[in-house]
Amino acid sequence: MKAAGILALIGCLVTVADSKIYTRCKLAKIFSRAGLDNYEGFSLGNWICMAYYESRYNTTAQKVLDDGSIDYGIFQINSYTWCRDSRLQKNHCHVACSALVTDDLTDAIICAKKIVKDTQGMNYWQAWKKNCEGRELSEWKKGCEVS
Ligand SMILES: *[C@@H]1O[C@H](CO)[C@@H](O)[C@H](O)[C@H]1NC(C)=O
Question: What is the pTM of this model?
Fold first, then answer.
């Protein structure tokens, strides 16, 4: 726990690093301000838990899937349906995939909201289903300055 805390601190200081790992409470604040708390009925804990298990809060996380599409960013949003990369697919979020792997989470949050609206819930995120759905999730915002 101590080591994790120190690592988190170093993460905050090294701003020139390519990838940014947000802290849980920083994310809680950003998510809360962006209106994710209870968005479509999903409490803040759902979002923080989902982001943790999808990307470990890593804004530059990328994963290539078997079909060649790529999951991008903190919410691991897939290029096949939701964003635009070199393969030019459906791009339902009308956003470049590269905009989903920056420290500014604005576009990623807008797209995640669209996913939840269009697919009627958070089932899109396998890691959420597996680790967060139906659990007691208030712990995820514990100690953070959010209501
Ligand atoms: C964040 O994700 C990027 C891209 O997958 C990876 O290169 C980097 O090592 C990750 N950072 C951490 C701290 O895991």
Answer: 0.86
Catalytic residue among 18, 40, 67, 71: 71
CA torsion 15-18-23-26 (nearest 10°) is 70
Give domain status of residue 13, yes or no: no
pLDDT per residue as tens digits for the range 41-75: 999 999 999 999 999 999 999 999 999 999 999 99
Domain total in the chain: 1
What are the backbone dihedrals phi and psi of residue 121, each rounded to the nearest 5 degrees, phi first?
A: 130, -170
100, 108 Cβ separation under 8 angstroms: yes
Q: Which of 18, 40, 54, 133 is catalytic?
A: 54
CATH classification at residue 114: 1.10.530.10
Tens of pLDDT, residues 71-87: 999 999 999 999 999 88
